[in-house]
């Protein structure tokens, strides 16, 4: 039986230290961590690795349920995958484990709360943006891709896939920029 810790933060400027320290204190023999959004399972390679290597009686431990995911369906699917491998999921704060009969029910309720919290965050963010716009203070999100460079590369005949590779972004982002003001 292995105790495997999973730590996650949403952005690269956030710190994993508190989570990894807590997981170590809980006796996790292995801790995998990543800096990626929890709104879906896309790009969560460390979680996928843990799930692929779980064995019967292993325990996946997270500090809080929202570290596992922000969407109820995703959280329940992760728990289901663990159960299919006869492994368990334990959340430290508040302490809940799928080892017991009531654990599954409590996990479902906590998953719903995590999803609700995500909706509230998005709603507060939208309200803040709308208020800033009304006061003339909104400048938009930080530009991550050099739009001028995308258009220049396209102008010299580079294809969207090549531009995406050169600028280390997705092809979809390139297409969005190229289709702006068309």
From TrEMBL:
Q: What is this protein called?
A: Site-specific recombinase, DNA invertase (Pin)-like protein
Keywords from UniProt, A to Z, are:
DNA integration, DNA recombination, DNA-binding
* GO MF annotations, alphabetized: DNA binding; DNA strand exchange activity
Cross-referenced SMART domains = Resolvase (SM00857)
Annotated PROSITE patterns = RECOMBINASES_1 (PS00397), RECOMBINASES_3 (PS51736)
Q: Which organism encodes this protein?
A: Hoeflea phototrophica (strain DSM 17068 / NCIMB 14078 / DFL-43)
Domain Resolvase/invertase-type recombinase catalytic as annotated: residue spans: 2-136
Q: Which family does it belong to?
A: Belongs to the site-specific recombinase resolvase family.
> Please, one GO biological process term?
DNA integration
- Entry-linked InterPro entries: Recombinase_CS, Resolv_N, Resolvase-like_N_sf, Resolvase_HTH_dom, SSR_resolvase
Keyword DNA-binding annotated: yes
Q: Where is the active site?
A: 10 (o-(5'-phospho-dna)-serine intermediate)
Where does the source fall among the domains of life? Answer: Bacteria
Asked if the record carries the keyword Nucleotidyltransferase, the reply is no
């Amino acid at each position: 039986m292995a105790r495997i810790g999973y730590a996650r933060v949403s952005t690269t400027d956030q710190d994993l230290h508190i989570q990894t320290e807590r997981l170590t204190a809980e006796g996790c023999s292995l801790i995998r961590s990543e800096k990626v959004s929890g709104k879906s399972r896309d790009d969560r390679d460390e979680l996928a690795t843990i799930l692929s290597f779980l064995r019967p009686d292993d325990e996946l431990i997270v500090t809080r349920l929202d570290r596992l995911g922000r969407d109820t369906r995703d959280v329940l699917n992760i728990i289901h995958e663990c159960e299919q491998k006869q492994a368990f999921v334990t959340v430290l704060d508040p302490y809940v484990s799928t080892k017991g009969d009531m654990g599954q029910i409590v996990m479902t309720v906590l998953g719903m709360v995590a999803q609700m919290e995500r909706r509230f965050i998005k709603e507060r963010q939208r309200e803040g943006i709308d208020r800033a716009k009304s006061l003339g203070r909104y400048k938009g999100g930080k530009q991550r891709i050099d739009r001028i460079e995308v258009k220049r590369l396209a102008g010299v005949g580079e294809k969207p896939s090549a531009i995406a590779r050169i600028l280390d972004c997705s092809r979809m982002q390139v297409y969005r920029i190229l289709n702006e003001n068309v």
